[in-house]
Amino acid sequence: MKIKSFIAPTIREALMSVKREMGDSPLILDTSDIEEGDIKATAGKKLVEIVAAENFIEQDINKELKGDDRLNVSSKVDRGVENDLPEAIKELSDKLSAQQVEEEYAQILTREALCDLGKVPTASPASLLPQRAAGAATFAATVQGSSGAVGKEGFEKMDLQQQIIKERFISKIKIPASNLANEGTHKAMAFVGGAGVGKTTTISKLALDARTHSDKDILLIKIKDDSEERLNKLAELIGATVWVVTTRQELSMIIDEFKSTSLIFIDTPGINHLDNVELLELKEYIHNMPNLEIHLVISATTRFVDVINAVKNYSIIPIQRLLFTKVDETDIYGTLFSVAMATKIPLSYITDGQEIQRSIKPVTGSMIAEMVIG
Ligand SMILES: Nc1nc2c(ncn2[C@@H]2O[C@H](COP(=O)(O)OP(=O)(O)O)[C@@H](O)[C@H]2O)c(=O)[nH]1
Ligand SMILES: [Mg+2]
Cα separation of 284 and 271, whole Å? Predict the structure, then answer.
């Protein structure tokens, strides 16, 4: 089997090189960012690496298929052409498709999962695998070992496969190292996004939650007074302080002064990501502000392309976290996963209701896995 690493500035370009060399249906073994300091890194340039292998199984199947179908694992599964595929992979492919995960990311995940599973019954020689893929093999071996029953007492192979697939899925989702409000980090949190996406509601939820779990003071800051009365009422209810700031300097001074004694939540005016002027104005306030963590708030019902465009346009600020609201208004969650894979920005919270009690949760990989492939 030919295994090769492809390095390019973007995933898309790397994928194009992979396809040029290995055909339309390579096995993607690993994708990763090349960190600064890595021997493969070029100074000042962001690079990504894809490790791919020629897919002989795929090539055989392709002989029976024509045109675009060659690229579509799901459709092949539907036609029953890939009867050799593990049941768990067919199930995965169906779920990703039903949850409207973008084809590009569904393909990557499916192929990687397939590759992981290939190592389950009889592990491939580790020497054949690149380093990171070998890590996946170790995981498979660990699961096998930890169950202690695989192949002996008929431990459900399907369960094991699903567990491995889930692990692979979870590995695609970045979550922040510490996700509980800003306690301990001395960072203020600012929430940006379009009008009506749920910024003020989310802040209310977090502040209320913080009130019950923390002894720190709570500071609610509004950038320009957008007449949001709700925060004043909330402040009364939970004994928080509200500030309205109209300049960057004011904001910076308040954060500096209160960051160690208070949990600071900053509400911002709703800005359409296509409105460059307003975006630049907001940028003036919070761009490169020390001790500030910026969350882009997005409704879970937004289409993938619109989310990606919002992330791109808001990235002038830049964005450190993505926060999905209104997950209760849909039961299609593929976009959350596709966006996590496409942007690699950590997901901070999801919110699932209008009421401000208990309808916010810090994101975990298992949570998203449960929503999409659970
Ligand atoms: N169903 C649902 N509605 C939400 C959620 N979060 C916010 N909303 C509603 O969305 C509307 C706009 O919210 P708001 O916080 O004012 O948005 P903002 O303009 O971004 O500050 C309000 O009616 C909220 O009650 C959520 O998680 N689920
Ligand atoms: Mg608001």
Answer: 14
d(CA 274, ligand 1 centre) in Å: 21
Would the CB of 331 count as within 6 Å of ligand 1? no
Q: Find out whether the beta carbon of 259 lies less than 6 Å from any atom of ligand 1.
A: no
Q: What is the model's pTM? A: 0.73
Domain spans, the chain: 3-171, 188-373
**Residues 188-373, CATH architecture:** 3-Layer(aba) Sandwich (3.40)
- Give residue-wise pLDDT tens across range 233-277: 999 999 999 999 999 999 999 999 999 999 999 999 999 999 999
User: What pLDDT, on a 0 to 100 scale, did the predictor assign at position 264?
Assistant: 96
Measured from the alpha carbon of residue 350, the closest ligand is: 1
Cβ-based burial of 130 (10 A; exposed 0-12, middle 13-18, buried ≥19): middle
- Measured by CA distance, the residue closest to atom 24 of ligand 1 is 354
Q: Which atom from ligand 1 is nearest to the alpha carbon of 267?
A: 21
Using an 8 Å Cβ cutoff, are 220 and 189 in contact?
A: no
